[in-house]
Design a protein that fits this description.
The protein is an alpha/beta fold and 332 residues long. It has eleven helices and seven strands. It catalyses: sphinganine + NADP(+) = 3-oxosphinganine + NADPH + H(+).
Length: 332
């Protein structure tokens, strides 16, 4: 009887794997597609633009610094696969004025056609203890990381729904899945992106528009170098428990998941574990994805308890080290 039940379960899983491709989103064809990348002048954004360009897409780069945009344009153009491809550069702060963002998106669509894929990669990070951070820091990070994703998405969504085709990518962070010491301002702005993405996916799925949320780990980018300048000791030690990824590796995975219409995009074993653990009520792209989350949840939850326990021990150790000099001063 037990053997029969096991055989039935195996047959059921195999059936799901066979049926899943039939109900999954149709992959987006990048050759000739118009891809807009915000924050595309450096880091992950630039690497995503290169990856899409390698696959035949037309690229619009959006960022604030004109000099960096022009430099990125030259780098991207080296990877063209035909002489028809174009890289358009637009300088604007996507977090400040929606009307400006809407206008530049219109300009881009007039030159390169409707936007097939939007990648919201503009963002910044500042670390520090909650009481040490200025209130303006919370406001700035929410503006750049959250509203900087809302405005471009709002500018392209109507056309995507009308054409019944499109991809919108939000680049969050593993700190947008798990709150960490020193990231009270950063994590909250990245958590907000997930809420936006989940709600938006429910609205646009009937129109064949799919949303992807990417959760990259620490990645070797100029932004990560800046972030390290303000990290408290505890945050640095926690970050050192995982390796730093290359932006090219992260970009390839994000583009792959966006093309397929996957809602979650994670990198590496840590990323897969976090995505499975924090999936909650998030949408799944296929039956098999949902099945994988159900099966792995118990195992990963057990591993995560030890994982988080190690973070707690790091924080306590740092607190004890700081307390020793203070106790010595009091007894002197």
């Amino acid at each position: 009887m037990l053997l029969l039940a096991a055989a039935f379960l195996v047959a059921f899983v195999l059936l799901l794997y066979m049926v899943s491709p039939l109900i999954s989103p149709k992959p987006l064809a990048l050759p000739g597609a118009h891809v807009v990348v915000t924050g595309g002048s450096s880091g992950i954004g630039k690497c995503i633009a290169i990856e899409c360009y390698k696959q035949g897409a037309f690229i619009t780069l959006v960022a604030r610094n004109e000099d960096k945009l022009l430099q990125a344009k030259k780098e991207i153009e080296k990877h063209s696969i035909n002489d028809k491809q174009v890289v358009l550069c637009i300088s604007v702060d996507v977090s400040q004025d929606y009307s400006q963002v809407e206008n530049v998106i219109k300009q881009a669509q007039e030159k390169l056609g409707p936007v097939d894929m939007l990648v919201n990669c503009a963002g910044m990070s500042l670390a520090g203890k909650f009481e040490d951070l200025e209130v303006s820091t919370f406001e700035r990070l929410m503006s750049v990381n959250y509203l900087g994703s809302v405005y471009p998405s709002r500018a392209v969504i109507t056309t995507m729904k009308e054409r019944r085709v499109g991809r919108i990518v939000f680049v969050s962070s593993q700190a947008g899945q798990l709150g960490l010491f020193g990231f009270t301002a950063y994590s909250s702005s990245k958590f907000a992106i997930r809420g936006l993405a989940e709600a938006l996916q429910m609205e646009v799925k009937p129109y064949n528009v799919y949303v992807t949320v990417a959760y990259p780990p620490d990645t070797d980018t100029p932004g990560f170098a800046e972030e390290n300048k303000t990290k408290p000791l505890e945050t640095r030690l926690i970050s050192e428990t995982t390796s730093v990824c290359k932006p090219e590796q992260v970009a390839k995975q994000i583009v792959k998941d966006a093309i397929q219409g996957n809602f979650n995009s994670s990198i590496g074993s840590d990323g897969y574990m976090l995505s499975s653990l924090t999936c909650g009520m998030a949408p799944v792209t296929s039956i098999t994805e949902g099945l994988q989350q159900v099966v792995t949840m118990g195992l990963f939850r057990t591993i995560a308890l030890f994982y988080l326990g190690s973070f707690d021990s790091i924080v306590r150790r740092c607190m004890m080290q700081r307390a020793k000099p203070e106790m010595a001063d009091k007894t002197a």
